[in-house]
């Protein structure tokens, strides 16, 4: 099993690792953001805020700035959700639209600028030589799907994700996914994005998801249906999945077969996933945590142990780019019973 967190997409171009290509440079402005950067104060990010004005009232609390201390973006948004009134619900809905556009546009510029060759392509080539693998991501972008496509694995519909040779589970949604919500019949069927945000307090969420533009709308009575971005709002507790329930069932069926876990840029903060992972793992597993530095990797491993997982874990500092450039996955996957030192 390979698990991707935000650090994977942040460090997704081997020739442009973060330490050499900072956010403040023009070339780094559209680097896929980490959670604390989601409301960065630059022209590119603020241009997406302008599309969804209800986000503006949140910026002073959410934007990163020197000397900023806790609470984190996730803690602030969770606090808003916990006591949300109608205005708060509209603002949170606008965040979903903003995140969809921001990540989509960052990805498009980032990929075009560096000609589409990402670390996901390299990792897929390296992993596929060692037998079956499944992939779990908490990222909204579709860079991994693009890499799958270049390796001959196509995802045309939302349920193709787990019915493929290399199954992919996107537990926090995707920029190209939509969630069906039911709205009162007196509303106009052709609601625009701003109207959907303004009517957010009346949304009744369903369990129906689709890739954007995918045909087929479930039959719902008494109420009309509309679609909103299927993207998880960053929350500290990370308690909910944003994906079709069938995906979670399929993932649970994959977990007992796992004997090695490769972690790339994930901090093991998603308690809902850990609660799914722990009871279904039937053995002690080897874990390699690819991370920015040893402290970050060891913190991830300790969280896995605290969740009850039986692991033999090693941190691999240096980041995703260094990891794939030096093919450090090879000794990990080729080993038997002992995790090789990074």
Structural class estimated from helices and strands: alpha/beta
CATH class of the largest domain: Alpha Beta
- Please give the largest β-sheet: 6 strands, parallel
In the sheet with the most strands, the strands line up as: 3-2-1-7-8-9
Number of domains: 3
Oligomeric status: single chain
Strand content: 15-25%
Keywords:
342 residues; alpha/beta; Rossmann fold; 3 domains; three-stranded antiparallel beta sheet; 9 strands; 36% helix; globular
List the helices and strands and how they pair.
Elements: E1 2-4, H1 6-10, H2 43-49, H3 59-62, H4 73-82, H5 86-113, H6 119-127, E2 135-137, H7 143-150, E3 168-170, E4 173-184, H8 193-198, E5 204-211, E6 223-231, H9 245-254, E7 260-264, H10 271-280, E8 285-291, H11 294-306, E9 311-317, H12 319-325, H13 329-334
Parallel strand pairs: 1-2, 1-7, 2-3, 7-8, 8-9
Antiparallel strand pairs: 4-5, 4-6
Helix pairs in contact: 6-12
Outline of the structure:
With 342 residues, the chain is α/β, with parallel strands linked by helices. It is 36% helix and 17% strand. It has three domains: 17-113, no CATH class; 116-172 and 241-334, 3-Layer(aba) Sandwich (Rossmann fold); 175-231, no CATH class.
Q: Could you characterize what this model shows?
A:
The structure is a single chain. By secondary structure, this protein is an alpha/beta fold. It has three domains: 17-113, no CATH class; 116-172 and 241-334, Rossmann fold (3-Layer(aba) Sandwich), CATH 3.40.50; 175-231, no CATH class. It has 13 helices and nine strands. α10 links the parallel β7 and β8. α6 crosses α12. The protein is globular, with a radius of gyration of 20 Å. The relative contact order is 0.14. The mean pLDDT is 89.
